[in-house]
Amino acid sequence: MAPATFSSVGIIGKRGDPSVSNALSVLSHYLLDKNLHVIIDEHAAGILPDKHHESGSLAEIGERCDLAIVVGGDGTLLNAARALADYDVPLVGINLGHLGFLTDISPDTMQKHLDEILAGKFLTENRFLLTASIFRGNEQINQSDAFNDVVVHKCNVGRMIQLETYINDVFVSRLRADGLIVSTPTGSTAYALSAGGPILHPQLQALVLVPICPHSMNNRPIVIEDNNQIDIVVCDNSHDNTQITCDGQIAFSLNAGDRIRVMKKKRPIRLIHPAQHNHYELLRAKLHWAENPLRS
């Protein structure tokens, strides 16, 4: 029997992927056997053979559940984190993807780890998100959240873009490059890492700005405090060549003169990990730094 800490659990599955249906079915029946109230997100419920489960939107899961279990890869968890950040619902990730920095429980150990989590044996991490607001003139025309990163980048292969960066309204740099990444510590092991940025510990209160293939090698990644306001101005877009993406999942086209303001979102997201979770062990395994230490 689960303690009163978690009484209503939402299940969020990878959208449009029938291959996760077996894991979703096993998970839902496991939770129901624990006498928990279970709500399956409406997209995942559609691929289950058993149509008798209660389903709801991500907003309904946020409003009605005190725990959300995400079944898929890191991309599925990124989407869930953006959707649920304003509801203060902790997330647990079951990894059916390839890398799994965020979804760190394997299907093989799912029931063992969930037994422990439901018994109150787990680690909790607060991770912050970003909010990116787009201004055209004096008008805000778009706003999106990001858990990993906000990226301003070119669309066409053969052309660079030119961007100006300001931190707290102070001019920092003019950059000619394929783009610029503003990453949270969570996102430092994603696109920012591929572009040559540093790995930030997830508990650091910091942001990293990483140029993508800069024209000048003098343009290097920089790490700043997380409470800074970052403005990125599109200098030249005569070829309709620039767009912004959030977590690689939300995209919006930009015009010359557009200003992107990136700030830390006030409400964090809570991640729940198994009690044995070790960030350095995860890095070592995922990045293949070493098989085993020489000494223990």
Key words describing this protein structure:
296 residues, alpha+beta, Rossmann fold, Tumour Suppressor Smad4, 2 domains, 6-stranded antiparallel β-sheet, 7 helices, globular
Précis, in short:
With 296 residues, the chain is of the alpha+beta class. It has seven helices and 19 strands. The mean pLDDT is 91.
Through-space gap between termini: 37 Å
Order of strands in the sheet with most strands:
8-7-18-15-10-11
Proportion in β-strands: 35-45%
CATH-assigned homologous superfamily of the largest domain: Probable inorganic polyphosphate/atp-NAD kinase, domain 1
Instruction: Please summarize the sheet with the most strands.
Output: 6 strands, antiparallel
Instruction: Give helix and strand order, one letter per element, not per position.
Output: EHEHEHEHEHEEEEEEEHEEEEEEEH
* CATH hierarchy class name of the largest domain: Alpha Beta
From the spread of the alpha carbons, the general shape counts as globular
Structural class estimated from helices and strands: alpha+beta
Give the total of beta strands.
19
| CATH fold name of the largest domain | Rossmann fold
Provide a descriptive summary of the structure in words:
The protein has two domains: 140 residues, Probable inorganic polyphosphate/atp-NAD kinase, domain 1 (Rossmann fold, 3-Layer(aba) Sandwich), CATH 3.40.50.10330; 135 residues, Sandwich (Tumour Suppressor Smad4), CATH 2.60.200. The protein is built from seven helices and 19 strands. The strands form four sheets. Strands 8-7-18-15-10-11 form a six-stranded antiparallel beta sheet, with no helix packed on it. The protein has 296 residues and is an alpha+beta fold. The mean pLDDT is 91.
